[in-house]
Amino acid sequence: MSALTEYTITALLLIGGAFTLVGAIGLARLPDFYTRLHGPTKATTLGVGAIILASVVYFSFQGEGIGITEILITAFLFLTAPISANIMAKAAMHLGVDVMDGTRGSPWEQ
C-alpha cells in the first residue's frame, strides 16, 4: 500500500472521528429536542460516512475489491437518517414538545 493511500485513509478516519465527536457533543449539549436532532443527523452521518469510505479505500487497496457491503451501508445511512429525523421532528411537533426560549418562528402554529 502506498503512502498516499495510507494518508488518505488516515485523513478520512480523522475527519470521520471529528464529525462523529461533534455530533455526539451536540446531542449531549444542545438545549432542546429540535436542536438535538441536528447532531446525529448532520455531523454524525458525515462522520460515519467518512469512516465507511476509509474502509472502502482500505479494502480496495488490499486487493479485495470494492466492498458492496460498505456501499450499501453508506446508502442506507444517508437515506434513513434524514427521514427518521424528519419523522421524529414531526412527532415532537404533534405532541407539542417545547422549544427553547428565543427560538424564532413556529411554523406548526399557523
Automatic annotation (TrEMBL):
Membrane-spanning intervals of the chain: 12-31, 43-61, 67-85
Keywords carried by this UniProt record: Membrane, Transmembrane, Transmembrane helix
InterPro entries to which the protein is assigned, alphabetical: PhaG_MnhG_YufB
Superkingdom, taxonomy of origin: Bacteria
A Pfam family assignment: PhaG_MnhG_YufB
Keyword Membrane included in the entry's annotation: yes
GO molecular function annotation: sodium:proton antiporter activity
Official protein name in the record: Monovalent cation/H+ antiporter subunit G
Source organism: Marinobacter lipolyticus SM19
Organism phylogeny: Bacteria, Pseudomonadati, Pseudomonadota, Gammaproteobacteria, Pseudomonadales
